[in-house]
Amino acid sequence: MVTFLPVRPGRLADVPAFTRAIGGAESNVACALAAAGHRVKWVGRVGRDGFGDHLVETIGAYGVDVRAVDRDPDRPTGVYFRTADDRATGAHEVAYYRAGSAASAMSPATVPYDSVADARILHLTGITAALSADCLALMRDLTAPRPGRPLVSFDVNHRPGLWRDGVGAAGVLLELARRADLVFVGADEAEALWGVGEPDTIRAVLREPAVLVVKRGGEGAVVFERRAGSFPTPPLPEPGAPPPDPRASNSPHALAGVGGPPGGAETSVPAPRVDVVAPVGAGDAFAAGFLSATLRGLDTRTRLRHGHLMAAAALTVPADLATPPRRAHADRLAALDEAAWGTLHLGPGWTGDDQEVRTP
Fold this sequence. Notes:
The protein has 360 residues and is of the alpha/beta class. It is 29% helix and 16% strand.
């Protein structure tokens, strides 16, 4: 969608003007991954209109392959307006205008499985499932068990304002999450959807995914991993990298708990202190950082740290998307010892290589 961002805080009724940007959880993740140096394809539908042109051109400028994006001649590109407040507060307002949009017409017929079958990771979110019955059918099709399917990553991304027409978000999002290999969910989302807010109780509800990432805002994140062999399609190394040793802690096979306790493993990493400019976009950025580290075959703790760092990049800019830190810069911070990581303090501009990172 095209996003309209307020020029100042306040109610939508009081904001005098908005600036145009791009929005959409999946495209946010795609842009962030491409900016981090990965090959990414975004599959979706937009209208054959000026807003559709803007989305395709802007997302493509990040280095994302947009050749599979369909242009609908009859339905418009969706747009939405939001306030500057944190989504977790009652003051936050969002006005969606995407009923009957091109994206809402996605279905197994308009987005065939073959268009995503060659991916190493297929990233989906619960937002798409809320757009229409056809979109929900598409999500069920893409998460269906298949021989050789990509690793399915699913961000619950509960948006209450989208779930209408008697469709129950709790049941649908639980169903889709249980069909995925890797799931991201906020503790606050799980509490609102399923009445469970602690990481271990969330894991009790979501036992099926090989990997479950529970995000706890400023407190950090927790990863639960299932036993060996539970990950059906472990990620391949980046081109030119040596094949991973399954016994090594930085192997992608370690994501499935190889070498760990027979019942799986739990890893927790606190979030660094961040001077927040705008709270939106952090969840998508966290997913992108975690997926980037997953594609690189890094160990679980490092994946979480890269998720936090990418989220910090988004939190310290006013828009949903931020320029990620250079890979060497992020790797250096992710490799800090526990004491130094615990005192990490990131503010606006920290992603530049010449910026000082405060560790008081």
